[in-house]
Specification:
- The structure is a homodimer.
- Helix content of chain A is about 35%, strand content about 20%.
- With about 140 residues, chain A is an alpha+beta fold.
- In chain A, strands 1-3-2 form a 3-stranded antiparallel β-sheet.
- In chain A, strand 4 and strand 5 form a beta hairpin.
- Chain A is globular, with a radius of gyration of 17 Å.
- At the A-B interface, strand 6 of A face strand 6 of B.
- Chain A binds a DNA duplex (30 and 30 nucleotides) through helix 4.
Amino acid sequence: MSDLLERLRGRGWRMTAQRRVVAEVLDGEHVHLTADEVHARAVAKLPEISRATVYNTLGELVSLGEVLEVATDKRAKRYDPNAHRPHHHLVCAQCGAIRDVHPSGNPLADLPDTERFGFTVSGVEVTYRGVCPNCAAA
Amino acid sequence: MSDLLERLRGRGWRMTAQRRVVAEVLDGEHVHLTADEVHARAVAKLPEISRATVYNTLGELVSLGEVLEVATDKRAKRYDPNAHRPHHHLVCAQCGAIRDVHPSGNPLADLPDTERFGFTVSGVEVTYRGVCPNCAAA
DNA sequence: ATCCTACAATGGACATTGTCCAAGTCAAGT
DNA sequence: ACTTGACTTGGACAATGTCCATTGTAGGAT
């Protein structure tokens, strides 16, 4: 690491201890954390970091396109640090675990003009639902 | 209306004024309402209905497969009464409007076994993101 | 090296959405 | 009409997220 910090600095981000810690948490974990989980891990490295700062920083990272928001269920948003390789998600309906997957087709091509209703379509998210091996065994 | 009420009665649902009102709200509107919007419309027809009952009833409708939950963003879940015709969603990134769409491909077929990680995959949701004509004009 | 200042962090109040529960109410079968 | 168990109620509570006035500080300017 960390290309991420490099890129951020290059974009004129003011580098603070808090932002570094949040970026490191995301960069290190290749899972999809909730804001609260990010906060918990950040606190472990920098005890006095506040919740608001974590939320702010996550929001900024999303705006910058460095991190993706994933809203697979009603519960908390999750943050996906793998923003630079397009991929989709496979979610366990029971335990909520998320895996990145790379399907073969291109769903954007599957939406004909007649189904676009004048929208300027800019992206697509595909969420597969199922039951993971662990939960199936239980 | 209302096949919905018929089906529910057929399944042994105890028919109460509250449930009828919630079902009517969903049946009448072919948009995707949040729980609070459903509650607001229900209150207009039956002022003393409580929020808890609306949540309960929506949850039951979802369990029965009569209504779909849609979690397109971090905000409230939306309820889609169009549960019997498979379709996907096109969401305006600015105003949050949702349109039902019917893409041509079958994304389930696009997920090879090697990308399933032992999951039993049971379904897929596709959410197209874009800007609607109204918001684009503004 | 020090100072300035705009930008960032803090933390606590507040907002929104959803869940839970004990008590009261009522639909529907007998 | 009675009875009963399912349904509703309302309010407390929980989880997640936002806002804002105040305080702190990174990084350029001197």
